[in-house]
Amino acid sequence: MATDYYELLGLTREATEGEIKKAYRKKALEFHPDKNPGDTDAERKFKEAAEAYDVLSDADKRARYDRYGHAGLRDMGGARGFDNVEDIFSVFGDLFGGGGGGGGGSIFESMFASSGGGTRARGENLRAEIVLSLEDVVDEAQRTLEIKRFETCSKCSGEGCKPGSSPQRCQTCGGVGQVQQSRGFFAIRTTCPSCRGVGEVIDDPCDSCSGEGRRPASKEIEVRIPAGVENGTRMRVSGEGNVPQRGGGAAGDLYLDIRMKEHEFFERVEDDVICEVPISYAQAALGSTIEVPSLRGKVDVSVPQGTQSGEMLRLKKQGLPNLNGYPQGDQLVRVVVEVPKKLSDEQAALITQLAEIEDTQVGTKRHSFFERLKRYFE
Ligand SMILES: [Zn+2]
Ligand SMILES: [Zn+2]
Fold it and tell me: Quick check: 189 and 96 in contact, CB under 8 A?
């Protein structure tokens, strides 16, 4: 990882120990795997934040990092990379709870589950698939998708209670949203089971959403797909996932998986597209202009005199745009000389005539082949 550790945690170089701890905690909560199930991007950020914290929370490592950057850590065996989420729990678990020890992971996790600490459960992320053709991604594409998701209940405005009634303070936790439990030597706080951390309970639930504050709905959303996307690309549409249950935080995100359709003519190789076009022997030998499909309609391509079967002709910038701003790809036309399977009498007569001439005037390739054949039998 080469990203700046301070930048990663949103800190300045003057950050105090306390600020570093606080910043890491915030990132860890945001990207916690339990909150972002199946989201590999969040998992990576979760690991990166742990690595940054590991360095910046250690005075020795931090001093070296400040002076020499990432290179300075190499002499100390490098920054500790975290391949495994469990490792992070076992190393930093005590940061969030009591005194470390065996139960570090669970203390850590229960901290995340609590909402009293300022983190409220987000709505779930959703996934959808978009199938596109190569032509679709030549330019930025716009699509309207119909998404089934949870939206705020309109009857109770997400409050969860019947119009005219209001939520009551939770008796179990006194409205704090957390309860304290002792586990061994430590007193740990967990999410209140009665109100799920909201701090309020509903005696008279809204009959439209049964008190959840949200209802399943079908929603059309517009998405823009950048030109040049590839098969398997995953796009995140922020905030277009489910709204959370009553008392929750932000809405989840919508993840779009891009799937590219097979193309009738084109094969894609990175940003280039390749197509195969049959030409006749006469076209190859004499040269000609042929009509070729391109991603932007038909184009005329000139086949030079003496083109060999299998030769590639390059049409500059007729491929796909590059997502990262590199030059646009090309189109490659592989010309294949076709041998006719059926001949009219006239064709047969002409080709026979051609053959008679070629007996005395063989081409270079054939010539050397016959030479080699002669030597072989000698
Ligand atoms: Zn409702
Ligand atoms: Zn409660």
Answer: no
- For residue 165, give the ligand nearest its CA: 1
Parts of the chain belonging to CATH 1.10.287.110 = 1-113
Phi/psi at 170 (5° precision):
-70, 130
pLDDT at 129: 94
- List every span in the chain annotated with CATH 2.60.260.20: 119-167+202-261, 267-339
CATH 1.10.287.110 applies to domain 1-113: yes
| 198 Cα: distance to centroid of ligand 1 (angstroms) | 16
pTM over the 0.90 mark? no
Given a contact cutoff of 8 angstroms between Cβ atoms, the answer to whether 327 and 316 are in contact is no
Q: How many CA atoms lie within 13 A of 271 on its CB side?
A: 19
Ligand number with the minimum distance to the CA of 151: 1
CA–centroid distance, residue 205 to ligand 1 (Å)? 8
246 C-alpha to center of ligand 1: Å? Answer: 9
Least confident of 60-64, 84-88, 190-194, 303-307: 84-88
Cα–Cα dist 108/95, whole Å: 8
Computed over every residue of the chain, the mean pLDDT equals 84
Tokens 């797909």 label which residue? 225
Domain 119-167+202-261: give its CATH code.
2.60.260.20
pLDDT-derived band at 193 (thresholds 50, 70, 90) equals confident
**DSSP string computed for 272-318:** EEEEEEEEEHHHHHH-EEEEEEETTEEEEEEEPTTPPTT-EEEETT-
267-339 architecture in CATH?
A: Sandwich (2.60)
Res. 117: pLDDT tops 50: no
Residue 210 CA to ligand 2 center (angstroms) comes to 18
**In this predicted structure, what is the pLDDT of residue 78?**
63
Looking at all shown ligands, the one closest to residue 176's CA atom is 2
Residue 202 C-alpha to ligand 1 middle, in angstroms? Answer: 11
Residues 6+ apart with CB under 8 A from 14: none
Distances (CA, A) of 67 to 1, 21, 64, 282, 312: 18, 21, 5, 71, 54
Q: Which ligand is nearest to the CA of 153?
A: 1
